[in-house]
UniProtKB/TrEMBL annotation:
InterPro entries: Glyas_Bleomycin-R_OHBP_Dase, Glyas_Fos-R_dOase_dom, VOC_core. One of its GO terms (molecular function) is dioxygenase activity. It comes from the Bacteria. The lineage of its organism: Bacteria, Pseudomonadati, Pseudomonadota, Betaproteobacteria, Burkholderiales. Gene3D superfamilies: 2,3-Dihydroxybiphenyl 1,2-Dioxygenase, domain 1. This is Putative dioxygenase.
Length: 140
């Protein structure tokens, strides 16, 4: 049996306690190992590591996509549509300010997807999406 490789992403945050509250409590990512200056999260089965580095945080440049300014530096996860809808509702209930409100992008095209963008407390941009057809994630 071949296993799917997992990704590891390390990123800067301003405050470890804020990162724990956002990624752990709000997004529901279980915490792994940690230290005073970093904390691991299980981000949908992948290793996400928040490192205390306040001088490196903040929103980067954007690119126009589908009449929106998409942050050029961002990360996130591709969820099933029910998971995506539940997360969107949870974020709205928590009064998260969206960079791009939840909506359907590329409607009727091969890459049709539900998407939303928002910032963590350190200004890191996250995108969560769900494809109308998961077979089209890499379709041209």
């Amino acid at each position: 049996m071949t296993s799917t490789p997992l990704f590891h992403l390390a990123f800067p945050v301003n405050d470890i306690a804020q990162a724990r509250a956002f990624y752990g409590d709000l997004l529901g990512c279980p915490e792994g190992r940690s230290d005073e200056k970093w904390v691991d999260f299980n981000f949908y089965g992948h290793q996400l590591v928040a490192h205390l580095a306040p001088d490196e945080t903040g929103l980067s440049a954007t690119n126009p996509v589908d009449d929106h300014d998409v942050p050029s530096r961002h990360f996130g996860a591709i969820l099933s549509l029910p998971e995506w809808e539940a997360l969107a509702a949870k974020l709205k209930a928590a009064n998260i300010k969206f960079i791009i409100e939840p909506y359907i992008r590329f409607k009727g095209e091969v890459g049709e997807q539900a998407t939303m963008f928002f910032l963590d407390p350190s200004g890191n941009a996250l995108e969560f999406k769900s494809f109308a057809n998961m077979d089209y994630i890499f379709a041209k």
